[in-house]
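Worked problem 6 (solution included).
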Amino acid sequence: MAIMRWDPFGEMLRMQRDMDRIFSRMGTDGARGESAAVAWMPRIDVKAKGDDMVVRAELPGIDPDAVEIEVTDGVLTIRGERAVEDAREDEGWLIRESSYGSFERSIVLPEGVTTEGIRADYKDGILEIHVPKALEAAKPKTTRIAIGSGA
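Solution. The predicted structure is:
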């Protein structure tokens, strides 16, 4: 009789593969592998670069004319939509993981930036928004109020 060696890590790897297989099926429509309608959000990075705060958003396959950028009450909002490609049943999709639909991302702007002079560029599916730092920090303003005599 041969002695078999037991590897506990092998069992853990098998369990991990099984779990990966289960989770990879979530969000798909049965055996066809089509993604179910799942909300998606573009990935963003925010960094300080020189005199600007730079927000980079990954928007591959999105027409820049379908993207809106606005600032309201110190919150920068990017919204848009990735249009669904025509998917005919007879095209023979084996796997379809792309996400489509509307999205909206909001970022609270930090103190010390100004909304004047914000600019945005779009190249190769990357939206880059430059928010300039304020040239001078806003100083508290004191207003003296005169006291009148009588009402």
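Discussion: Strands lie at 28-29, 34-35, 44-49, 52-58, 67-72, 75-82, 101-108, 119-123, 126-132.
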